[in-house]
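Reviewers of the previous submission asked for a worked example of the structure-prediction workflow described in the proposal, so we include one complete record here. The input consisted solely of the amino acid sequence. No template or homolog information was supplied to the procedure at any stage.
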Amino acid sequence: MYKILEREDLTSNVHAYRIEAPAVARKARPGQFVVIRVDENGERIPLTIADWDEQEGSVTVAVQEVGTTTHRLAELKTGDAIANFVGPLGLPTEIEHYGTVVCVAGGFAVAVVYPIARALRQAGNKVISILGARNKSLLFWEDELRSVSDELIVTTDDGSYGRKGLVTEPLKELISVDKKVDRVIAIGPSIMMKFCALTSKPFGVKTVVSLNPIMVDGTGMCGCCRVSVGGVTRFACVDGPDFDGHQVDWDLLLARQRTYIDEEKLSFEQWLQKHAAAVK
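From that input alone, the workflow returned the following structure tokens.
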């Protein structure tokens, strides 16, 4: 069992868990993920590592309440434990001295971008970060991302905070005006990453995205996380999760992510019914 050392509510439906997992903390690198199970009857889900402390032996993950398992996780508090916490999995993000790097974080993905931006800055890069969300209430870790960035631009779709508009707008401006942008790292919803890649492609700026297809075992055996990159089938769990955004078949990825929507909805409805009955 893996003890929850601390739970922090970041928004109404996003929570950070600092988990006691010394073996994972010793090996963790930016961009990697873990696979967890709440209990012995739970499903396996991947969660990207948001932070880690090797000395304390802890790993932090952020969880957004979406389906059955993430809602079950949301019921856990400080001092509780989860059954499995396997990792670190996947290839780390390539960290080198590129020059100027623009890091784009779409909403919840700020938890993924934060350790990457930190590592890039430590490697001597100029880091310009763009943090976007639908509205102000969905933003978190703004100060954390700002602390590891040379410049931070915040956008909201509705204009309730920061600059009104999509993250692709300041991204295009930065690439158009500053010819010294050497790399873009865009992480967030697949549709956002797709349009970030489309924005940067005409300028020839290498754009790295972190793909989040359906995943089960996290070791390349099940094949569920297959994606098409440059016309070649790759497995996100062992070949990624980072890939060249200009080479990803986004339409196929988006279609595959919708494969089990009906089953996921049914699972969540059944859990809600059981949960309501248990509360009574």
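Residues 2-89 form a domain with the Elongation Factor Tu (Ef-tu); domain 3 fold (CATH 2.40.30.10). We consider this example representative of the routine output the project will generate in years two and three.
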